[in-house]
Design a protein that fits this description.
It is a single chain. The chain is α/β, with parallel strands linked by helices. The longest helix has 17 residues, at 109-125. It has five helices and five strands, in the order βαβαβαβαβα. It starts with a strand and ends with a helix.
Length: 126
């Protein structure tokens, strides 16, 4: 299936997402910070989807989105945000920066799997 980078500072969320998506056949790469995620993207161009928490220590969610898109510019890289953040102005800004989808925490595994499958199918069809 797909190589997916999951970035969150919560070990519980990382575990839930990894279990839900690996059960669907995806290869999951885990990072606990935006800085580590950017280094991982630089060395692994086969990652097709990034699932990011928006509010983490270190670099901002917007900065992580911008830098990820820059690093992966020549690839079909998608970004899904999983966040407790639900303010329309913040979500709109993230979408303008290149986020492909946003899911508000807490989320249902089925919702996550469905959205990931949609994003992966779009990538596979391009």
């Amino acid at each position: 299936m797909s190589n997916i980078l999951v970035v969150d500072d919560s070990p519980a969320v990382l575990k839930i997402v990894r279990l839900a998506l690996s059960s669907q056949g995806h290869n999951i790469i885990i990072c606990e910070s935006g800085e580590i995620a950017l280094e991982t993207l630089k060395t692994n161009p086969k990652i097709g989807l990034g699932i990011y928490d928006f509010n983490m220590p270190g670099i901002s969610g917007i900065e992580l989105i911008q830098k990820s898109k820059k690093i992966m510019a020549q690839f079909k890289f998608k970004i899904l945000i999983l966040s407790v953040e639900n303010k329309p102005e913040i979500i709109s800004k993230a979408l303008l920066e290149g986020v492909d989808a946003w899911i508000v925490k807490p989320f249902k595994n089925e919702e996550l799997i469905k959205k990931v499958n949609e994003l992966v199918e779009v990538n596979d069809s391009l």
